[in-house]
Amino acid sequence: MFIIRNKKIFISISAVLVAISILSLLFFGVRVGIDFKGGALTEVVYTAERPAQADLELSQKLPALSPLLVQPVGDRGYLIKSRDLSEAEHRELLLTLSEDNASPLEELNFNSIGPSVGRELTRKAVLAVILVSLAIICFIAFAFRKVSRPISSWRYGFIAVVTLLHDVAIPTGLFVLLSHLYGVELDTLFVVAVLTVLGLSVSDTIVIFDRIRENLRIEGNGTRVDFQAIVGRSLEQSYVRSISTSLTVILVLLSLIFFGPVSTKYFAIMLSAGMIVGTYSSICLASPLLVWMYEWQGKKSDKVV
């Protein structure tokens, strides 16, 4: 009941964090990777010890190809992201990477992605997020179709989507900060992380909503009930399970952050932030919003049939 009694505080915390994330996105923007804007992806590996990243000085040696993003891969490789390269520019890049280095160089992969492909990926990514959100609303409205009082079934779905937007907005704000400070680029892994967060977060929310539905059915039974008390009791019965489940996933993701490859590091950070924010929203945002909506309708209690 502590969370429900202080629902305005928890809702305000979420609103402030979402506002900060949106302002960060508007103020700093985000670096878009070649998956969306088009460009070239070159992966190389040195047969012996690779040179230090600072010693490559690609931006100074190849100013015509800037901006260049160089990321370490494995123990001896580098991943270079750049604008679309001609064959001559591609050879010049490989020559610059190998010159002044005692260790021979081997090119593992070279991909060129056109702008039209990037636009198509952007369209499909946005469409995927919209369709997932609509599917969640429809599913929850159908699953809760017999719970029409004191809150209509579609409102459960609407609140679930509001919490999902919250769960995506805050990790996105974190990603914007990482992009501003460390030059992290938005790529297809970011979209995968967003869709994964949507799925993981809504499962917790549905579990708690389902507990509320069951308690309404059991405790109502033709009598007048205190909706706020039922929601608070449902939270007390569910939050330990939600936190425990999320912690097991977060521990795995933390191991991926600290011990996994660099290429999936920021993907794991996004998922970890999404899990933490999603657990918070399921417990401290979704149910308080449900009670707030009930009170906004002016119904302090109702008869459940």
From TrEMBL:
Matching entries from InterPro entries are given as: SecD/SecF_arch_bac, SecD/SecF_bac, SecD_SecF_C, SecF_bac, SSD
Q: What keywords appear on the UniProt entry?
A: Cell inner membrane, Cell membrane, Membrane, Protein transport, Translocation, Transmembrane, Transmembrane helix, Transport
Where in the cell is the protein located? Cell membrane
Q: Which Pfam families does its entry note?
A: SecD_SecF_C
State whether keyword Aminoacyl-tRNA synthetase applies: no
Give the GO molecular function terms.
protein-transporting ATPase activity
The record lists the membrane-crossing segments as: 9-30, 125-144, 156-182, 188-209, 239-260, 266-294
Q: Which PROSITE patterns match?
A: SSD
Q: What's any one GO cellular component for it? A: plasma membrane
Q: For the SSD domain, which residue ranges apply?
A: 125-292
UniProt keyword Protein transport present: yes
Gene3D superfamilies with a match to the protein in the record: Multidrug efflux transporter AcrB transmembrane domain
Could you state one GO biological process linked to this protein?
A: protein transport by the Sec complex
Question: What topology in the membrane does the UniProt record assign?
Answer: Multi-pass membrane protein
Kindly report the protein's main subcellular placement as a broad class.
membrane
Q: How does it assemble?
A: Forms a complex with SecD. Part of the essential Sec protein translocation apparatus which comprises SecA, SecYEG and auxiliary proteins SecDF. Other proteins may also be involved.
By sequence similarity, the record places it as follows: Belongs to the SecD/SecF family. SecF subfamily.
In UniProt terms, what function does this protein have? Answer: Part of the Sec protein translocase complex. Interacts with the SecYEG preprotein conducting channel. SecDF uses the proton motive force (PMF) to complete protein translocation after the ATP-dependent function of SecA.
Instruction: Tell me what this protein is called.
Output: Protein-export membrane protein SecF
Q: Which organism is this protein's natural source?
A: Candidatus Nomurabacteria bacterium RIFCSPLOWO2_12_FULL_46_14
